[in-house]
Automatic annotation (TrEMBL):
PANTHER family: ACETYLTRANSFERASE-RELATED (PTHR43328), N-ACETYLTRANSFERASE DOMAIN-CONTAINING PROTEIN (PTHR43328:SF1)
Name of the protein: GCN5-related N-acetyltransferase
Taxonomic superkingdom: Bacteria
InterPro entries in UniProt: Acyl_CoA_acyltransferase, GNAT_dom
Organism in which the protein naturally occurs: Mucilaginibacter paludis DSM 18603
Domain N-acetyltransferase: 32-185
Length: 185
């Protein structure tokens, strides 16, 4: 059978499933909506994320996100799935121009799954996937000053703290320092 490039890519990328210890990373599905809202609609989850990750996390926002993710041909954002249910997400954002060999890493996990060691393995698997599939030399992550748990995740995943950008983040009417972590190939 002969596939068009679009059909080939859709078929290939629909098969992405990276197995971890008690979870898998997989592509987004429209059927993830209820779980996405259940775990994302939490101020404790959104407090350390960019303003693009809305709170409250509404059905409309979930539908927009899922429509966007399910129509992409380059899979750079994956679901954290436990027992067939979305419980979080992880993705990279490609930088441009002179930074084109760098990607920014972002992730979140539903509160019931915090403190179980899941995210360190998720980050390691996503980094491996990203370096294997994309022309990157560096993956970088920025962390709010008040989020030491995320700093530990990155450190345990092999990231190196490169510095602190003072007053780089502004959320909820307050400035926060951004701790810059990176891993290079």
């Amino acid at each position: 059978m002969i596939y068009s490039l679009e059909n080939y890519l859709a078929h290939f990328y629909a098969m992405i499933q990276i197995k971890g210890s008690g979870f898998c990373l997989r592509e987004w599905l429209l059927s993830d909506e209820a779980s996405l809202i259940r775990y994302a609609d939490n101020p404790k989850v959104s407090q350390f994320l960019s303003d693009r990750f809305a709170y409250p996390y509404t059905a409309e926002y979930a539908q927009q996100w899922l429509n966007h993710q399910t129509q992409k041909t380059v899979i750079d954002n994956l679901v954290i799935d436990i027992d067939g249910e979305l419980v979080g997400g992880i993705g990279i954002e490609f930088r441009q121009d002179i930074f084109r060999k760098t990607a920014l890493l972002g992730y979140w996990l539903g509160e019931p799954f915090w403190g179980k060691g899941i995210m360190t393995e998720v980050v390691r698997l996503m980094v491996d996937y990203s370096f294997e599939n994309f022309d990157l030399a560096r993956i970088q992550a920025g962390v709010f000053d008040s989020n030491p748990a995320s700093m530990r995740v990155l450190e345990k995943a092999g990231f190196i703290k490169e510095g602190i950008a003072k007053k780089a983040l502004y959320k909820f009417g307050q400035f926060s320092d951004e701790h810059i972590y990176a891993l290079t190939r």
